[in-house]
Design goal:
2 copies of one chain form a homodimer.
Chain A: E1 2-6, H1 11-21, E2 25-30, E3 36-37, H2 43-53, E4 56-61, H3 76-97, E5 101-110, H4 123-144, E6 149-155, H5 162-165, H6 177-189, E7 196-199
Parallel strand pairs in A: 1-2, 1-4, 2-3, 4-5, 5-6, 6-7
Helix pairs in contact in A: 1-6, 2-3, 3-4
Chain lengths: 200, 200
């Protein structure tokens, strides 16, 4: 398969790349690293990326961020920052992929545990992860009509981030990275669709 | 209680108003009707609304919309339209309310069944309802720290909309409006928080 992996140099993406690299034609997109560059906050940049890659069999997105800050200090602009990146960045990749997927193609997005299991200062990510999950639930039927699939992997705090982020996630048991990568492989290689693949 | 009901002249809001009017000081906000005017797509307009009402005991939002259209025709701009209205419109009301709620105050937002039970052409609403639910889940802890509560009512297609919208919801059993109004009253008068109150 020819697979576009957006965010393939990040914490999770680099491990997904390791798993898939041997058996697939992997194109790694990053903001400033990887094989091709993309700024997912800009729909034009996403369009240009797909024009560069041409038709593909699958897209996986492990990119996108959102501010982590106290709710009382969070403004409309803070939410918009996360919306442009992890929410609409991923959604615009999925919308653009509709024109570039080969028959049987799939899209795999990334949400996260905070939509269901909140932490202090994490409301913007809770919101955006909920939006990504809602998008997958809403979109899979119209993906199906074109012969495509779409899922989201929703990981817990991953063990590779536990040193850096663990203090924000008190009492959260980190997910093993191998299990998280399993989620992406399951979305890619089984025939499931419309699923939120929770990895805890 | 002094209750601000944003969207109180709409299909659901007007029935919530009927239920609450006799026993409470109800301030109905609408875009062009009601006691006070607000454009929830504009954070400044929301700020001005709360300056007008002063401190309140509860806010209920039954306002906000999003485009309904085929996924393949949906653009970033279509999503942004829904984000500004039903998503950030409601979220900005909740954020602003943090400065205007009396002790024990509550916020009740409106999401909807499409985050979990999708229809063709409904992906933008699925996304936005998921975001609103994620916000409530993420935010309730920091509301709690201030002595406030926050919930969302997530109604199915309501019977009062079934004639106009039923064709978009094939096989969906409309919810009785009395049951939907019960959801808002439950959020307002019990002590639950962080809940998505599903009304089917």
């Amino acid at each position: 398969m020819k697979i576009l992996l957006i965010g393939g140099t990040g914490t999770i993406g680099s491990k997904v790349a390791e798993r898939l690299d041997a058996d697939h034609q992997l194109i790694i997109a990053g903001r400033s690293s990887g094989d091709v560059q993309v700024d997912i906050t800009k729909p034009d940049s996403i369009q240009k990326l797909f024009e560069e890659t041409g038709n593909i069999d699958a897209v996986i997105v492990t990119a996108g961020s959102a501010p982590v800050k106290p709710l009382a200090d969070s403004t409309n602009e803070d939410f918009i920052q996360g919306i442009k990146s992890k929410m609409m960045g991923q959604i615009n990749v999925a919308l653009t992929a509709l024109d570039y997927l080969n028959e049987g193609g799939s899209v795999t997005l990334t949400s996260g545990i905070l939509s269901d299991d909140p932490i202090p200062q994490g409301t913007i990510l809770s919101t955006i992860n909920g939006a990504v999950n809602g998008f997958v639930t809403g979109a899979y039927g119209e993906f199906l009509q074109k012969g495509f699939r779409i899922n989201a992997v929703s990981p817990a705090l991953v063990e590779d981030s536990a040193d850096a982020l663990g203090d924000f996630f008190p009492g959260h048991t980190p997910a093993q990275m191998e299990h998280v990568v399993d989620g992406y492989e399951k979305s890619l290689k089984t025939l499931i669709t419309g699923q939120i693949i929770n990895i805890s």
